[in-house]
Amino acid sequence: MTEKEAIEIQEQAGTLVVEVEKAILGKRSSIEMIVAGLLADGHVLIEDVPGVGKTTLAKAIARALGCSFKRIQFTPDLLPADVTGVTVYNQKTGEFIFTQGPVFANVVLADEINRATPKTQSSLLECMEESQVTVDGMTHRLPGPFFVIATENPVEYRGTYPLPESQLDRFLMRVRLGYPSRDQEVAILDSQMLSHPLDSVEPVLSEQQLLRLQQSVRHVHVEPCVKDYIVAIVERTRDHPEVVLGSSPRGSLGLLRAGQATAAMAGREFVTPDDVKAIALPVLAHRLISRHIPVERPELSARITPREAVIAEILGAVPVPAGVR
Predict the structure, then answer these.
(1) Could you tell me if residue 94 is left (phi over 0), alpha (psi between -120 and 50 degrees) or otherwise beta?
(2) How many angstroms separate the CA atoms of 57 and 206, rounded?
């Protein structure tokens, strides 16, 4: 990748961030993280308490992209076929016809994903990993680009099901928004006095532009020493005394892809160790299982023994490669 191409990605990504900020005030870092996940061709889980703007942020991202969009409201009675689609028999033609489910879109909002049963949650596994759906022995390709942005509330006990580790691992990043500051909350009140700011969000990237950006990000240069640094961080999660199960190689690949996107958004054509550090927490924390976390409520782990602290400790312990240009 050339410096000119990196600057072009920076400008287009910046335009997308600014457009989404029309609907979400004071959360620029979270928006940039999600855009990085989008450019890295990954999927993002937004986890936080109710009312902080998770769904609004997801919808704003979808509106700012000139791509097809579907929203799936996950509920306990939702079935896998309601997500992927179903094969029906046409009496007139005497043939079976596949009817596409809402997952057949460029941007899919899986709202309150942990309200659905594990069986329904698992319907997204093949979609998110292989960009395809298999129904009744027939495989159907999903449109590209394909981006799942899911929301979940980590503190609700009733009517929710914990996301299994295999499902969590499919998300490139887990992002939290947090409460706004007092000034930001006043600004939110002002912005919604007459209308919702989401109505002002306009498409700024087309489907083809997004695909080109995702392909360009893959060409951001990564020095061998930075790759070794990524693997060293992930390896430390596997033998940390507070961790039962560390990150898989999918975590290493996630760090690589997200690092490339972070570098490109900064207008650079190469990845630095600081890029890796910047995205290590959202990429790796949700992939760990701590020794002190109740198995039946793994989604509450950050509130009991912060896995973020484990990642921070590892980042402080692993030697940083020097001399990266």
Answers:
(1) left
(2) 19
Q: ∠ CA 146-110-197 to the nearest 5 degrees? A: 95
Three-state SS at 138: strand
What is the reported pTM? 0.88
Task: Kindly state the tokens that stand for 194.
Answer: 């007459």
Q: Token digits for 7?
A: 């600057």
pLDDT tens for 194-250 read 888 888 899 999 889 999 999 999 999 999 999 999 999 999 999 888 888 889 999
The answer to whether the beta carbons of residues 154 and 48 sit under 8 Å apart is yes
What token pair was written down for 25?
Answer: 């005030």
Distance CA(297)–CA(160), nearest Å, equals 10
Residue 18 structure tokens: 């600014």
Taken in order 187, 188, 193, 197, the sign of the CA dihedral is positive
Domains located in the chain, CATH noted? 220-325 (1.10.8.80)
Q: What is the mean pLDDT of each run of 10 residues along the chain (325 residues)?
A: 86 94 88 94 89 86 89 92 90 86 93 90 92 90 92 70 86 90 88 84 91 94 95 93 89 96 94 95 90 48 63 92 72
Q: What residues have CB less than 8 Å from 172, skipping those under 6 apart?
A: 37, 40, 42, 43, 44, 254, 257, 258, 283
Question: Is 52:62 a contact under the CB 8 Å cutoff?
Answer: no
Which CA distances in Å does 138 have to 97, 108, 130, 132, 281?
Answer: 11, 22, 14, 10, 38
Chain-centroid distance, C-alpha 22: 20
The gap from C-alpha 291 to its chain's centroid, in whole angstroms, comes to 25
Q: How far apart are CA 116 and CA 98, in angstroms?
A: 23
